[in-house]
């Protein structure tokens, strides 16, 4: 082939490749993705389903949770593709869901999704109110990860143990108590106008949990070892501050800002924001409160929080000295296991901060490079677009969105016939033989579930056994709700 012809083909190939991404970007319906992202939470519900339930293939489940300790622990959300309720990531789910609602309430209202978002938030909060049975007692897990993972069962069929585990004054869990405090404090802000009484109840529990976390210090997995096998905490200082900043945001009580001012750490420069590492979230909310002039501007510590947050955002948007790795197709890459959890949480931080800056006509400075709020939102779009199909595989990594998405998503309920179509018990091992190992697609579509995502080279294997890539925990979706509301505006 002549060289000019080869160059022409290469150029045409590049143009087609570029055109693919442009068309994908232009055709992405963020409003539809927002609707589906909230439907996902209905698929993860545990307990007695409400009349408003839209995902009809699910049924009531785990109606005796808490009975081993003589209390009612029904409700809440299953963690991911399993049937365990893990309190630590559950609380982070509620905090980030509430944060998105607070930041982008007007957008949710304009897209007629505010009610669904608040319903999803309340479902999680109601469970925490049940779990917090006394000022210094919090139930932090229902079900056992080991026995649950030995079975492949619909939640409606479960025969595995539903043991309930708690932290208390003698068996502390400062991290999980602090995160639950943050969740309820943030949710109280979201509910303040719509339901002031409920907001007051949430806030009262948040304050008690903050005190419990501070007065009885310890890592929760030392008190509840079974939780540590799946969601081990690396420390609790971030959860203290995460709770304190949300309590101050909710109350303007100087007690909480004084705590932040005197605690001795601002977290340092972090590389990610996740269910185990809340520092970037703390830094972002402190910066928001500083911009709004709700903090004492004479304290230089607030500038340190902001500086460290900026040093997280700049490398994430590829404007730093040590940028977050990008895949060849343009996906931010942190870790092989459920990489998208870090993407969605980081995009919530960036989208929120972009609007905080825009509110005062400011820009982000990455060294000598100026980044406008609009450019920050464009970067957020690029990552959300990748998740929703603008990627080398042309696959949406949100189940049920677009024409091509994971059809063998790692999820017990979705992978088996609905109990409404097949009410017969499908036993522990039968589920593996008949459904987990099946080559066929899941019979039920768990609308809106965001899976873990491709590897560092944009490769993805759609198999139930590939839980690192094909499972979709609630921590993936919760931050994305607010981000999608922002993009759909």
From TrEMBL:
Keywords: Carbohydrate metabolism, Cellulose degradation, Glycosidase, Hydrolase, Polysaccharide degradation, Signal. It catalyses: Endohydrolysis of (1->4)-beta-D-glucosidic linkages in cellulose, lichenin and cereal beta-D-glucans. Residues 30-484 form the Glycoside hydrolase family domain. The keyword Repeat does not apply. Its EC number is 3.2.1.4. The keyword Hydrolase applies. Residues 1-26 form the signal peptide. It comes from the Eukaryota. Belongs to the glycosyl hydrolase 9 (cellulase E) family. This is cellulase. The gene is LOC120273286.
